[in-house]
């Protein structure tokens, strides 16, 4: 007898742990599935976690796209888009230029995912980036004036 259509068999990875083979009931809320996964690895605060495709896309699994998960898919437990956006938002404001550059590289990579991008925008991330560009432009213009004979 074939398995019910609402059940999807997947593997879920977590750094430093053996992958878990799970059956995901697509009728269950995604938050309940994430809580179950976190409980299996004894991770507290399941609301700070999310599932992501483990392939090169690294896109987050959401209630809207979860029906695209097929049998045999490999997923990864990772920090939630909101947590990731908050951490990145803070790193971009670092006083260290190296830290800012690394954060901007990460932003370029992560922002391909609409779910993450929306969380970053919700933190007023576009204004932050605009301020960075504008202040950089002002500094560049001042430097030009100083350098002119």
From TrEMBL:
Organism lineage string: Eukaryota, Metazoa, Chordata, Craniata, Vertebrata
Organism: Pan troglodytes
UniProt cross-references to Gene3D superfamilies, sorted A to Z: Leucine-rich Repeat Variant
Annotated protein name in UniProt: ELMO1 isoform 2
